Give the backbone structure.
Amino acid sequence: MNILLTNDDGIHAEGLWAVQKALSAEHEVCVVAPDKERSAVGHSITLMHPLIINKVHTNGGWGYAVSGTPADCVKLAVREILDTRPDMVVSGINPGPNVGINIHYSGTVSAAKEAALMGLKAIAVSQGPGENRGFEHTAAFVSSLIRRIMDKGLPAATFLNVNVPACAPEKIKGVRITRQAIAPLREKFHKRIDPRNRTYYWQGMDTQVLDEAPDTDGTALGGNCISITPIRCDMTDYDAMEQLESWNLKM
Amino acid sequence: MNILLTNDDGIHAEGLWAVQKALSAEHEVCVVAPDKERSAVGHSITLMHPLIINKVHTNGGWGYAVSGTPADCVKLAVREILDTRPDMVVSGINPGPNVGINIHYSGTVSAAKEAALMGLKAIAVSQGPGENRGFEHTAAFVSSLIRRIMDKGLPAATFLNVNVPACAPEKIKGVRITRQAIAPLREKFHKRIDPRNRTYYWQGMDTQVLDEAPDTDGTALGGNCISITPIRCDMTDYDAMEQLESWNLKM
């Protein structure tokens, strides 16, 4: 397979190169990743500035470093860098989980979403919570999962959001197909005073998932299971359409 | 009602103040908007830098200008600026439509999504395509729509993405409840050489909607109808879950 590999932590990130090593034995892997960390940029794209591409040697391999967001990387790779459309796009491995409403903010997830919007098969992969013990077990799971995806296919404009526990591999209890939790975060801003006596606010992000229903991504991960959530690019609330029709709205 | 008004074009944008004027006659309106244009930032939030809030007098009114993204503005307004939770969050009026897959990139839409994630009723409002003839007719429609929403309610974690044609109001043919088109854009990068002889890429964005099915947002707008799409914050592809279960994945 031709695989495009990207992330939101930047081209030097350990999690990205763990996947690159695991997949390179069997596949052609091309790395196109942001030149620096771009966490929480969501599905941001760069329209106001030009993008620069530099070849970078790092972590025993090389890739293209792009001065943009994860979604920019996918667009630029497919439209300009790669000679052929990739068979699969992998985004990650992100250190720290991407579950629940956090996936709206995640650059890791948005890179896979961009690929799915372009009609490509894609997965976003994150690992955590908990101490980082290396990414080898997650990379090995990615390797087997993408073979299965090539075999079975995915619905159009749907990609997989994969979260793997950071615990020792032998403690992982299995694989669960889950839904995205949508319970709000318990988040807050730190209000502080700067050296020139002005008030500023710094956003904390509490990743705690409050929706503890058994079928959610966060619950599976909390139970030391790998969580796989199919994510749809079509955001239409079809059930609500009928309700809105009955409003009989006029200009 | 207490209404929070934001946008992605920044606090000085004409479309924002058209809504502010239309709604202020009946409601308490608080403006919290980015201090400059933040188009195509998607659901980006600011974690790496502090945020500054400044009171700004502009367009015959005043509001809070935030050094962050549209989603930051909604979070900061609800958590820190407003004394009470707003009854409604309005994002816009964006000059130019937000339909099809463009809504993944849109700061206007993501501000409303952030509000819905926080459990608030919300709408994103855009106007176009075509020549900008002022925003009064769109602002008037917003005014009647939010009354209807307060009366009828919205499903939890669902908001409305509203697009109004830019044509003269008497040419608008009605209101259509639509689905989000997910056809790819015809987009490309301009490859150029900079003054120091380096290659750079600049992203063009073709907003043409290629999915011409009669029930999509872009088709309705193209037919001079107001398009209203209910958008769900839960991105799970429930249909795909069953299919994935049958894969019987293991670690």
Q: What stands out?
A: Chain B has a mean pLDDT of 94. Residues 2-184+211-234 of chain B form a domain with the Stationary-phase Survival Protein Sure Homolog; Chain: A, fold (CATH 3.40.1210.10). The CA atoms of residues 85 and 199 of chain B lie 49 Å apart.
